[in-house]
Amino acid sequence: MTLYPETYSESRSRFLAQVDGIRSRWPRVSLSQHALSFDPALTIDWIAAPAVKTQHNIVIFSIGEHGVEGYVGSAMQQVFINEFLPSLNPDDTGLLFIHAINPWGMENRERNNNNNIDLNRNFITNDQFDTTFNPTYDQLRSLIVPQRRIDSMAFETLRFFASVIGAIVKHGIPAIREGTLMGQYRHPRGVYFGGQTVQEETVLLMGLFEQAMADYQNIVHLDMHTGYGPRYQMSLVNSPLDERSSAESSAHFNYPLVVKTNPEEFYTIKGDMIKFEYELRNQKFPDKTLYATAFEFGTFGDALPALIRSLRAEVFDNQLKNFGAKNKVVASQIRREFCELFYPDEARWREKALTDARLAIRGILKAMIPSAIMAQR
Ligand SMILES: [Zn+2]
Description:
The protein is α/β, with parallel strands linked by helices. Strand 1 and strand 2 form a beta hairpin. It has 14 helices and eight strands. Helix 3 crosses helix 14 and helix 9 packs across helix 11. An eight-stranded mixed β-sheet has the order 1-2-4-3-5-8-6-7, sandwiched between helices. The structure holds zinc ion (ZN). Zinc ion (ZN) binds next to loops.
């Protein structure tokens, strides 16, 4: 079977089937699940395998925070289980594998959850959802949330390009990137909406991270994403709160492309999961070591035309949800482009993604888990 699944349930079944194999070396392994309140058929499943002797290191591997991105994530999680578990030492290393943080989004091939909330903008503590955050978004509204039905892909694309050019002239490209991707907390039907309450998926993950940090000394978390960065080169996306510079991380992990979520290297995010983990560590567990990062598998690419195409895919998908399309043909064109942005079909792309993931996992385990045995090859 190919590593890349076609459905959420296929991916989930494969994940659940891993428990028995893990038990051979981690005898106390357990499987847990959280059924979504509005649809118990959709579950967040996780496998927790405590270290056998001392709870020193824990490796957390999570996928599908942005639903549709979980298909590539699922392939990488399986690669980790197949190829890298043998190099970990169960005596001092525990595991926490989380399948589909956003199961509704994975099932429906959407990025957001069923409330149109981007979970990676939703890790907000103390309910401090700042509705005034990112005022630039409102200035770009005619570009990013057109208030009309889509009648034809070609015609709507022309209108979109005209708006993009207008916005570039008026605001500049950096402002467009920040104004959209940074997130916003005002417009529930808009794009990159971070919500106004902490979502149930987020609450669950916050608890899992806190437990892991309470139990272990050295926490390594790999979280899978797709959509941004160069097409054939996965980016390791570190938090600005990580102590190493991107260049230092690149050398440390022997991995060619490392960026941080700041406007110069990637883009700024508010309410993101990895930043939450660093803040949690800093506030409650300052003596623990943490390395949490996102594997970001680029798809359309990072040149300007590719960025515009990516934005179009996101805008049209949101527009389709809010206003519909003239007919099924138009709707399916929009959906196909959106899926291609997060789950490319091309065999060469999928092969390179696996190669990059293996290289990064190897480098990170070697650097961060002292007891891991990384065979040379
Ligand atoms: Zn993502």
